[in-house]
Amino acid sequence: MHDNPQAPSGQATALPGHRLIELSGRDAAAFAQAQFMNDVAALTPGHWQWSGWLTPKGRVIALMALLRLADERIWLLLPDADAEAFAAALRRFLFRSKTTIVVRDDLRAVGRYGAPQAALGAVLADDEATGLELDYRGEGVERSLRIVAADAAGPEDADFARRWALDDLRHGLPRLGPDQAEQWTPQQLSLERLQAFSVKKGCYPGQEIVARTHFLGKAKRGLMRLRGAGVSAPAEVQAQADTATSVAGQLICAAADEGLAVMPLDAAPVPLLVGGQACEVLPLLAGLAR
């Protein structure tokens, strides 16, 4: 990647909360393969995938876009996690690994609505003038994300950030705040829809839990997309039956009046409430899997 790419003028907006960590060195790919839940070894340089880091009990610490730039260079794009804390925790597992872990505050992520200029699916596009481009398209929406020099990113815009987060949620990409870290398994977050974890590769933290759940078919909860006036922050989702209500699930993230909730997969079709107000169930959109 060029040292000082410029964001396309008037076309892109800085994405708040998105931070970049670089893994470099002879063992970078092997280290990432041993720590993260997707198959880094199967990822060709110049491509990216959704992935995450799990606790030994199989709970998601953070989700990320993992970019394999070269055999010895990997970038982790974290949309919500504390990058410094994440990098510090990751370094504790280096042992003798020839890997350097650095938070790249000299780079920023910017989002743009419209078809990518060159990136396609999981294939990255690197341009010296405009930065590294990722295809963020999904069902019903054309958008791309670029990684550019921090001084080229421009200002943030709250309305744009809400729209971007809403499109993430609509396509089943959970935006996990600090209160939701280490709470959910990949299956409870329906991350198979994004092809974000592997059940076939070698060991990684939480792999036994993930694989057992997959092969024994014991996933009992998954994501549900909800919309309603009360959908605004993490909260309980209640099921209404006659005059009684009971806890049916947990709303974990929201943008505008939509959110994602972890719900039982076999839940009966009954009226749902969030914050005491009725909400409707909407289908999760496809197309964001990489």
Mean pLDDT figure: 93
What coarse outline follows from CA principal-axis ratios?
globular
Class by SSE composition? mainly beta
**What is Rg?**
19 Å
Low-confidence stretches: 1-10
- The CATH superfamily of the largest domain bears the name Probable tRNA modification gtpase trme, domain 1
Q: Report helical residue fraction.
A: 10-25%
Short description:
The chain has 290 residues and is mainly β.
Give a description of the structure:
By secondary structure, this protein is mainly β. The chain has two domains: 161 residues, Probable tRNA modification gtpase trme, domain 1 (Gyrase A, domain 2); 92 residues, Elongation Factor Tu (Ef-tu), domain 3 (Beta Barrel), CATH 2.40.30.160. It contains four helices and 16 strands. Strands 11-14-13-12-15-16 form a six-stranded antiparallel barrel. Strands 1-7-10-9-8 form a five-stranded antiparallel beta sheet. The protein starts with 12 loop residues before the first strand and ends in an 8-residue tail after the last strand. Keywords: Transit peptide.
Which helices and strands occur, and which strands form pairs?
Layout: E1 13-14, E2 19-24, H1 28-35, E3 47-54, E4 60-70, E5 73-78, H2 83-91, E6 100-103, E7 107-113, E8 125-127, E9 131-135, E10 143-149, H3 158-170, H4 207-216, E11 221-227, E12 235-241, E13 244-255, E14 258-264, E15 272-274, E16 277-282
InterPro entries: TrmE/GcvT-like, YgfZ/GCV_T_CS, YgfZ/GcvT
Protein name: Folate-binding protein
Keywords: Transit peptide
